[in-house]
Amino acid sequence: MVSRRSFLGRAAALGLSFSLPALTARAVERRGSERPMSLITLWMQGGPSQLETWDPHPGTPIGGPTTAIDTTVPGLRIASTFPKMAEMMHHTSVIRSLVSKEGDHERGSYHVLTGYRPDPTVVHPSVGAVLSHELPATGVEIPLHISLAGGAGFTLPRGGYLGDEYDAFRIYEPGRGLINMRSRVGDSRTDRRRDGLAVVERAFQAGRTRPASETLHRQMLDKAVAMMSSEQLTAFDIDKEPAAVAAAYGDTRFGRGCLVARRLVETGVRSVQVVLDGFDTHTDNFEGCKTQAAILDPALATLLNDLAQRDLLASTIVLCIGEFGRTPRINPLDGRDHWPGGFSCVIAGGGLKTGVVVGATDPEGLRREPERPVPIADLYTTLFQAMSVDPSREINTPIGRPMKLSEGQAIGELNG
Amino acid sequence: MRLPTVVAPLAVVAAVLGVTGYAVQPPLPDRPLVSADTGGTASTIERLEGLLAKSWSAHGLTAAAPADDLTVLRRLTLALAGTVPSLEEIRRFENDTRPDRLSHWTAQLLNDVRFADYFSERLARAFVGVDGGQFIVFRRDRFTAWLSEQLKKRRPYDEMVRDMIATDGVWTDKPAVNFISAAYANDAFDENKLAGRAVRAFLGQRIDCAQCHDHPFAHWKQSEFEGLAACFGKTRMSIVGVDDGRKTPFEIEDRKTLEKRVIEPAVPFGAEWLPADGSPRKRLAAWVTHPDNRRFDRAIVNRVWGLMFGRPLIADRPVDDLPDPDDPAFNEQNAVLDVLADDFRRHGRDLRRLVAVVAGSSAFRVDSRVPENASGSTAGGCHWEVFPLVRLRPEQVVGSMLQAASIRTIDRNSHLFTRALRFFRERDFVEDFGDPGENELGERVGTVPQALLRMNGELQKDLTEPNPFNATTRIANSAPDPASCVEVAYLICLTRRPTTEESEFFTNRISEASSKKRDEAVADLIWTLFNSTEFSWNH
């Protein structure tokens, strides 16, 4: 890795316009209400069954073999495969009546990531991109919008009309080293390569001064180099975390991802997505959900506990959600199919009310529409308000079409 | 799927055979070359240049000087084959003494399988997008292969479009049907999506906004959108694939009154071009491609121009949002479009001829540099007096890296192994790099992850670090002296020779290196060139 000093010297020698921000007000030392807000989205890829997580209906025709347990919120029962979360539900609220019109993975993911339905003439920014755009952070040298993701069929949260630079920075294997972050050759060769670059750039600039600088090619390169040499990269490492902490999150990609997410939030990253895939349970839903719960339960419970212990929960919203839910009807393969008409999410932190249960689905599974339906846009309007971002602010898309950050009504029950 | 090392198992080759179906295709018969002036493209080019010149003088612009032939060859190969030219091609080109060798090379590239394959992929983005869709009813690979076949056969574009809109059948057997089946989601056809896409892709009009409300800028009405959507109102998925046999009437729920209204197929203008008989999709197809429907030819001209320059002819609007044909504010630009559109219509709507006309024009051949004291230059390429700087697409970047590292031209005649590597590397790299999707002709800059990938990525390492398979070792071992090493590296990466300053700088670097480290010095040079602005931007 190129040392910070060597880079700075190099940058000065080449007269690069880029300068590194001061590291004085370190986000990592701030706590409580002083901290800027962050969002951690736990993305349940594939569409998690609401009936096997936060909205079980045991003993009904649609309930299947899933049983329910009491939680620290009186009257709130969740699937018994979540014993650790049962002890943590007082930190959270549950929405059981999310509704969407998108029952396809790609379209559903787009909708839940952005709050907007797919529109062929515009690409909406994901919520994480909007937050990094609206709430820039000084002193943070690593990307503000990060996705800790693996698995096939994954949809990267994009910057959309805000620009590709707001795309989530993707980490494939959280806690297992960073890809492309180190030069493949030693320091001296790396330096020689960059010296050479200045010569080539000069030749290209000739006669193209303005258009060439407008490409921002060099700025992106310099930013990348700054990131490669940043001390804040240690936020991605979990080696120094106590073994007990790492064990509590679970020795899984998702568990490690949740731990890294906490560290990133401490460093000042605005939006982190941690992906858990494997929820597309068209067959063998109940066994599949048990496997998933065994990963999700310790990771989410430990994350909430950890954030609360470190006084970070007031400034961090944790949202556990997937692209849709699953059918009340159990299909002949013991599976459940896609169901965008009444599914669940768990939301915690950020000063939102806790212990609230919004909406309800029909225990018989006969009515398609849940009680108190909540469109996805309402969820994000609530979330933006909690993070002091005005959801009604309009941004002009590249074709001059004004677009609100989020359409929809705040969910009154969650306003703290 | 990630390919970890250079040396891939044979399984990769087998997979490529399976995935791409290359193996089952017979070798292409020799086709007559498009002659250099393609049956009188000269007069069209002259008219085009006359209009452009008029616009430059009207705006007080000075046109840039003609670019040198190698620069144009680079643009041409990037536009038509998706890579920079190989050293092999550069050498042959430089030995070509024919007058106007660029036109000969355009014709040659248009007959190259690389053109049909690459261009069909680019066009497919406009027609069916980039999403995987529902695999069971949508096969993007079949659709792209079909498009490629049509380009090879020089099938008239209007026939292709009629196939896409109106064909019945199964998406595997009748690949054009994928245009329709791409809009199958949530167990139903999305008539709005189909109507919106058909009008955007084939007529260059954004009418989608009218789905929910009247278009804020143009005079499209919601009712007009509904009529277009109704053209797909009989489309259904049956046991024999897609057909127009739906029995129930096409109804729309009014957003205000929530009452259902039956909507009949209708078109927003040119009602006289809509035939009275036939299935709704056949009628729509006839209307879209009607000889009097000027938007049809203009739209594809604007798009093909966009694919070649990286920016559509009407550069300040999205590629699929043309001004109205009679909008006086756009007289100048519409006139330019019409020169090309008329030529296209008069000559059998042959996409290859259209490409040849554009590539032969001075707009495609001017420099991207302007004299520092040039008057009133916009340098943005809006009037085409200077070639715009446009960021290359991810597959152009990776294609160019692979091509540069291989010396020989990579095409279907290459060894299977080389093609297999190319196939997988492109997929991995494009995924990591971030695919701009359908909005590929929008303005965009690079990102930090892309810079990291280019600087430190595995592909970059495999292609630059000395190994027996790549150009680094071959250049270091076979170039007679350090200066030739530098020259060859510049030619394979940037399709030009180094300036004096560059040549001196890098020749010194290589001379300083011990003979054992010479390949390292060459690797460093190639790394540097790969990471330059010049490499990643069309110019």
From TrEMBL, chain B:
InterPro entries: DUF1549, DUF1553. Residues 51-236 form the DUF1549 domain. Residues 281-507 form the DUF1553 domain. This is Cytochrome c domain-containing protein. It comes from Caulifigura coniformis.
